[in-house]
């Protein structure tokens, strides 16, 4: 009886170990540099599932969660221990590049090979349905009159991507950089908690990704003042872009992958092709749109340049607004 | 009536043979996962998601499987707490207080049975609450602002002395050390690293699960090593294998009280199940501890937190489904899975996907009954654990702890952290300081700080905001009353003792 129990328990423990990825052999591995449940986890799991479902990958893709330092732990790990592992990809996004730009990762963007982005979340500025602000101009006028008059919130801390996106609009509206520090910013653990607290009257405006809060827009609890995209978002064609209101700002949060810096050109190209193939499938379009992402492709050399430029741009903004 | 017909539809969806099979499988697996130290419901659910996808199950079946594992883990977590004094997961730390003393006194099977029934009651109350009031209760999370959450955590800390224990100052000290440890890592407000010594490994702070495994499991082994030379035979007397029905009854009232407390705490996103179990215990202790039996194996001290833990797990599903806010780590994983299945949780979920929601709720009723039926006979199996000689049991605990922690994080650094906490736990135990306030401080500290920070960001640094909301003001009044009550009671007691001694002298 006793040995049976022992065997059972060790069996389960070992099985759990293997399933969790400790025993993975040749199958592709995707590191989600966050706890289960976040955006990077979603990127790995959805892409991994579709690659296998669509037979682009022969074996199921192992997803490993490696949380820490907003992706810095995974970055350091790949950089030092697995720079030439051709079976490894790591999920990342604009948030990761923000961290790199602000010097919060162990190295710059050039130590990795950037495979591509498959879709992007669109930044939005939202208010409760009964808010006095009817347009972005209303909100910006209020900020210009008194920067401390409106409390804003989002899912990042001060100097994070949600905060920066709001300040980019303020900059486009002609606010002085000195006034930025007076804008009150509150951090919540995600877009939904921020919006919920806004509906409860704790804060007046939220800047975050549309995907997470789309349900509240559909139900009519909140209104979109402006989407930070070039074109209106397909899911909400009536929501005006910031651009159409005279603020030339885009605030995408793309989802994509990098791999180690010493992966060979051939293996790197194989990953780029794999991801392009996935991007072209109707299944990916459906999965992306279902979770509020707009499918946009940038891959290979084009993507590497894009990431480098974005990091440079953010470094500039961070200095402008005084978070660096 | 509308609810009843929706629920009937739900049962029609959940009660297909495939779904029932997965429900039973999920319950069993959940119980085992919950019982293993380190591997909690979060990992259980996260590990099974890829398997569920690989099997190409339909979304309702996947959700049923995962919910059954979730409920199963909250049942299983108590087993190691009671039998070994090692909590299977964060929310079952409270079950060590009275559960383990019961097992030590040869009442292991009663303790397991009572806690199984308490878990059942807790889950049932929560599931019923979810059925009847979900959309309505979702509002609670909307009206609870940062300053209210902060007040709630202050109340929780004021009640630490309600845990019992020899010295309230030691309890408070342990709580504050826990709070200090929770401030290690990246500051979420500004992104600055605090107390990390420049190591990326500490950017996310100490994982409470790793700390709990170290504090309880590793320190247990260290304590054993110290006495190993003369220890022999089994840990505790075994008692009967299968409990009689009558023996499951004590603690029924406590279970219902604990369920209510746990449910309320589950609805509020934040600490979730751990806080539910903790509040249920301290309130029950205040309510029922007339003869000073708590902490020494009082069935009510076991039933209340177990019911609270399970009720909070059920309650946490409400903000997850209706607002898309996870109330606990496990619901965060389930939320991610829903999203990857193209199901958007939020205010419209009940209208858009009624089949999925009601299928889930029906499956929770089924899971609950399956778990109760499964857990009573399993009592016999688990009590045998105690007949294991120490020289097998102790290495086994070490193996499971290391495997469990490594399987969550794939980091040898976390193994070192676990050993560090093991040594800390050993020192605490030697100094007779309770580990529970330490863990509570670590679990609640980050949320407490973040909400204080948020409240002050909103008010631009004006501390008045902390007491301006009616909810916060009520919570502070309650805190003051409790502290005053405890003070008055202590004063009364010491005077009576003095009177007693003078009488003797006369």
From TrEMBL, chain B:
Protein name: Tripartite tricarboxylate transporter permease
Keywords for this protein: Membrane, Transmembrane, Transmembrane helix
Stretches assigned to the DUF112 domain: 20-440
Species in which this protein is naturally found: Tianweitania sediminis
InterPro entries: DUF112_TM (IPR002823)
Species classification: Bacteria, Pseudomonadati, Pseudomonadota, Alphaproteobacteria, Hyphomicrobiales
Keyword Chloroplast: no
Transmembrane segments: 20-39, 45-73, 111-134, 140-160, 172-189, 209-227, 323-344, 356-382, 388-408, 415-443, 463-492
């Amino acid at each position: 009886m006793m040995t049976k129990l022992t065997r059972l328990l060790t069996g389960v423990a070992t099985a759990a170990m293997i399933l969790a990825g400790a025993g993975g052999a040749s199958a592709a591995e995707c590191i989600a540099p966050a706890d289960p449940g976040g955006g990077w986890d979603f990127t790995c799991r959805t892409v991994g599932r579709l690659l296998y479902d669509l037979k682009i990958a022969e074996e199921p893709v192992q997803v490993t969660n490696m949380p820490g330092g907003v992706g810095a732990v995974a970055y350091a790990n790949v950089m030092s221990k697995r720079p030439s592992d051709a079976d490894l990809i790591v999920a990342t996004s604009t948030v990761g590049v923000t961290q790199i730009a602000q010097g919060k990762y162990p190295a710059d963007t050039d130590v990795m090979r950037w495979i591509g982005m498959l879709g992007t979340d669109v930044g939005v500025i939202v208010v409760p349905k009964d808010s006095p602000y009817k347009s972005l101009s209303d909100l910006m006028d209020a900020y210009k009159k008194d920067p401390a008059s409106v409390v804003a919130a989002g899912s990042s801390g001060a100097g994070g991507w949600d905060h920066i996106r709001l300040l980019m609009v303020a900059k486009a509206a002609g606010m002085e950089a000195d006034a930025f520090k007076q804008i009150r910013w509150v951090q919540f653990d995600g877009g939904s908690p921020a919006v919920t607290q806004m509906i409860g009257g704790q804060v007046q405006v939220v800047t975050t990704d549309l995907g997470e809060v789309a349900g509240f827009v559909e139900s009519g609890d909140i209104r979109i003042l402006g989407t930070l995209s070039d074109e209106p978002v397909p899911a909400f064609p009536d929501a005006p872009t910031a651009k159409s209101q005279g603020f030339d700002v885009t605030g995408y949060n793309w989802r994509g992958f990098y791999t180690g810096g010493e992966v060979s050109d051939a293996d790197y190209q194989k990953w780029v092709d794999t991801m392009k193939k996935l991007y072209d499938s109707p299944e990916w379009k459906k999965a992306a749109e279902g979770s509020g992402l707009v499918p946009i492709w940038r891959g290979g050399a084009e993507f590497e340049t894009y990431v480098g430029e974005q990091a440079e741009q953010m470094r500039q903004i961070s200095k402008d607004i005084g978070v660096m | 009536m509308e609810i009843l017909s929706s629920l009937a539809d739900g049962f029609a969806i959940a009660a297909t043979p495939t779904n029932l099979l997965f429900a039973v499988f999920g319950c069993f697996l959940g119980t085992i996962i919950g019982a293993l130290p380190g591997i909690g419901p979060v990992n259980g659910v996260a590990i099974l998601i890829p398997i569920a996808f690989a099997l190409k199950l339909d979304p309702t079946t996947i959700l049923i499987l995962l919910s059954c594992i979730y409920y199963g883990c909250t049942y299983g977590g108590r087993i190691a707490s009671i039998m070994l004094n090692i909590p299977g997961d964060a929310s079952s730390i409270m079950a060590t207080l009275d559960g383990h003393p019961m097992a030590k006194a040869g009442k292991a099977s009663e303790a397991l049975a009572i806690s199984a029934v308490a878990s059942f009651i807790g889950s049932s109350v929560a599931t019923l609450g979810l059925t009847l009031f979900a959309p309505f209760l979702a509002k609670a999370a909307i009206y609870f602002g940062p300053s209210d959450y902060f007040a709630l955590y202050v109340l929780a800390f004021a009640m630490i002395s309600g845990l019992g224990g020899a010295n309230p100052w030691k309890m408070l000290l342990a709580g504050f050390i826990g709070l200090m440890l929770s401030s290690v890592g990246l500051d979420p407000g500004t992104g600055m690293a605090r107390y990390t010594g420049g190591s990326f490994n500490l950017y996310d702070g100490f994982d409470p699960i790793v700390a709990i495994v170290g504090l309880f499991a590793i320190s247990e082994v260290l304590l054993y090593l110290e006495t190993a030379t003369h220890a022999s035979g089994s840990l505790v007397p075994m008692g009967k294998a299968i409990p009689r029905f009558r023996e499951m009854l004590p603690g029924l009232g406590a279970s219902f009280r604990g369920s209510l407390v746990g449910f309320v705490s589950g609805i509020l996103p934040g600490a979730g199940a751990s806080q539910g179990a903790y509040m249920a215990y301290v309130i029950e202790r205040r309510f029922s501890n007339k003869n000073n039996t708590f902490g020494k194996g009082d069935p009510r001290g076991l039933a209340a937190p177990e019911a609270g833990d399970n009720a909070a797990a059920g309650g946490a599903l409400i903000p997850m489904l209706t607002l898309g806010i996870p109330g606990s780590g496990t619901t965060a994983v389930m939320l991610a899975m829903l999203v990857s299945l193209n199901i958007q949780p939020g205010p419209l979920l009940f209208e858009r996907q009624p089949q999925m929601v009601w299928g889930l709720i029906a499956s929770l009723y089924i899971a609950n009954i399956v778990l109760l039926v499964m857990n009573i006979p399993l009592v016999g199996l688990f009590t045998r654990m105690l007949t294991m000689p120490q020289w097998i049991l102790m290495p086994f605990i070490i193996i499971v702890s290391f495997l469990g922690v490594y399987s969550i994080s794939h980091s040898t650094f976390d193994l070192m952290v676990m050993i560090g906490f093991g040594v800390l736990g050993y020192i605490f135990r030697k100094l007779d300081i309770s580990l529970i306030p330490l863990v509570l401080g670590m679990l609640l500290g980050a949320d407490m700080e973040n909400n204080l920070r948020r409240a002050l960001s909103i008010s631009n640094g004006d501390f008045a905001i902390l007491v301006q909301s009616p909810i916060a003001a009520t919570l502070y009044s309650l805190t003051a009353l409790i502290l005053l009550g405890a003070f008055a009671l202590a004063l009364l007691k010491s005077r009576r003792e003095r009177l007693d001694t003078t009488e003797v002298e006369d």
